[in-house]
Amino acid sequence: MAFRLRLTPRDSSFYGMFTAAAENLVTATDLLGQFVHEHTRREELAGRLRDLEHAGDQATHAIFRQVNSSFVTPFDREDIVALASQLDDVMDAIEAAADLVLLTHLGTLPAEMGQQVALLQRCAIVTAESMPRLRSMKDLADYWIEVNRLENEADKLYRRLLSRLYSGEFDALEILKLKEVADQLEEAADAFEHVAHVVETIAVKDS
């Protein structure tokens, strides 16, 4: 009878680290939702988002260090690095969007931006829910299908927003400012989809 004997156990710490990184994004998107609507608290909320971005960076570097120090990883090292990097990219885009609103002194934002953030909040929730399932590699397909659907919705919303920006409702300078913010929100949605693609790759390799 053939069997495999694993003398060195796989490092299981990555599952908790990825879950924590994804939960950080849930907190960040919730703060961004408040940031969009609560003008008087933007400085405070942006500061909290910067703290979360720093925490995300630390989590990413911790995963990288763990990859380098682990003899046996639960899945391919390049996939671990890719997943950590894409989660970090989401956080960077979220923080950048808020920072741009402050730096350019934007006031009331178009309703479409609130809708963009709502889609990001949903992406964050389903991503955080999926990370613990990496341990068993079960029930992950619904996750990446849902994120792909949400990203498609985000694309449509982004195009509608651009159409409104160029409709004559806004002056030229405001268009430039708002488009920079919209681009970062769109980049965050794309990064969530990239996370889902990495998870799909990991699951396919494991099957």
Walk me through what this model shows.
This protein has 207 residues and is an all-alpha fold. Helix content is 77%, strand content 0%. The protein has helices at 13-37, 42-69, 77-103, 111-130, 141-165, 172-206. The radius of gyration is 19 Å and the shape is globular. Mean pLDDT is 93; it is low at 1-9.
Describe what is shown at a glance.
The chain is mainly alpha-helical and 207 residues long.
Topology:
Elements: H1 13-37, H2 42-69, H3 77-103, H4 111-130, H5 141-165, H6 172-206
**Structural class by helix and strand composition:** mainly alpha
* Helix-strand string: HHHHHH
Number of helices: 6
Radius of gyration equals 19 Å
Output the keywords.
6 helices, globular, disordered N terminus, 207 residues
